[in-house]
Amino acid sequence: MPRKPIVRSNQHYYHIVARSNNQEYFYLSSQETWQMMTGKLSELQKKFDLEIGAFVLMNNHFHLLILSPKEDIDRVMYFFMKEVTLSIQKRTKRINKIFGGRYKGCIIEHQNYLMNVFKYIYRNPVAAGITDKAENYPYSTLFYQLNSLTQQPFELTRLFGHDVESLLPWLNASFKEEEAQSIKSGLRKSVFDFKKDRTTGRVIEPGFFNELLT
Known about the structure:
This protein is an alpha+beta fold. The chain contains seven helices and four strands; from the N terminus they run βαββαβααααα.
């Protein structure tokens, strides 16, 4: 099946995901991989004036919510994945590729879409059974925002005008299964949209935190 073309925008956030080769670990400890990736994102943020809304590193992939107002997202991700690849190869003495392929990007055009994708990213470790609460996962920018003893790796954009502490009850409220599947389906598209029920035609849209829109 041919790869869907990436729609480009300098006005909307992208959800970016990229997986390791053969969906293996990134060949380093999670702590080393986290430090390396966040360091590269910090460098690129300064170089390209990026806005970063969230970043979560899993065992064999990462989720990134990013806006690139001054540079093509392909160029940004090319540099990021290239630099990460070279750094991991250097540290591990590997000669094989690190990522399984190009990144996948999905534009998030509407605020309620962005809210649910933001929540989906931070709940990824919870959904995987790694942690019971989103804020307890250490390889997540959410963890760094809530722990004063840890240095935040780069500047995060406050997306909804609320302190992150006030969002925790909402972030820790689980999606219904059909809601989670609707978001996953939407993220496979070039431009995000919720899934429709095949029988009724109803849009399967999760409930959202109303106060975020006021």
